[in-house]
Amino acid sequence: MEHIWTPWRYTYIKNVDTKPGCVFCTLLSSGDDRTNLIVHRGVLNFIVLNLYPYTSGHLMVVPYKHESSLAELDDATTSELMILAKRAQRILQQEYKPDGFNIGLNLGRVAGAGVRDHLHLHIVPRWAGDANFMSVIGETRTVPEELSETYDRVYKHF
Asked: Do β-strands 38-41 and 59-63 pair in parallel, antiparallel, or remain unpaired?
């Protein structure tokens, strides 16, 4: 098995539990969607840019309900979560024209969840060659667009 090391993620992972409260619940309560990178508020879920994106356009769909288990979400929340994920994928396809997507949930610390108590669905556009030598050898992620520009490009579709 080949291993690709990503040590730059360790700083984030080791510090994620040191801040009081839930990052997603805090975002929701502030009321400043642009500053908090919330691009859309649905009835039961919202869509937010990832503050530490893997690529430009990295979005997350997050239920308003503070829940760590997909199995514990009610059907209406789960349905809207997937409807918003589909909408976000279409928007990212139209706006960024990626070669593919990674879409998924990381539930629990051992599954890679950076925020383990409030589930969120990642939608990550991918391009051929986006994991280049800078990420693999240089231990540096290059994101070619400011978050404010990503926000504007995505927000206009909602």
From this structure: unpaired
